[in-house]
Specification:
A two-stranded parallel sheet has the order 1-2. The protein has one domain. The chain is mostly helical and 92 residues long. It has four helices and two strands. The mean pLDDT is 84.
Length: 92
């Protein structure tokens, strides 16, 4: 739990440090796609934290998935990540 609070605080501080003239470019953790089992809720929470921090500070945010080296032979995980990202972006 403390790690999650720390991550959220980091997102908030990064967003607060920027002015509304800038875009926060966030590269979420690609390791969620490489885990033995894929947990969509972990992905959702991380993206929500980023979007929440950006909105609270009047910033625009972009989400970039990169550095994916494996999806454990489950390429559908990429489509799931995309679907979650679109849903989360639509919430904000």
């Amino acid at each position: 739990m403390q790690e999650e609070q720390c991550k959220f605080l980091t997102h908030r501080l990064n967003a607060k440090a920027k002015e509304s003239d800038y875009v926060i470019s966030r590269k979420p953790n690609p390791a969620y796609l490489a885990a033995a089992s894929f947990d969509p809720e972990l992905v959702r929470r991380e993206l929500q934290e980023t979007c929440r921090a950006a909105k609270e500070n009047g910033c625009t945010c972009e989400l970039i998935l990169k550095d994916v080296s494996t999806v454990q032979y489950h390429p559908e995980r990429l489509a799931q990540w995309h679907k979650i990202a679109v849903e989360v972006a639509g919430e904000w």
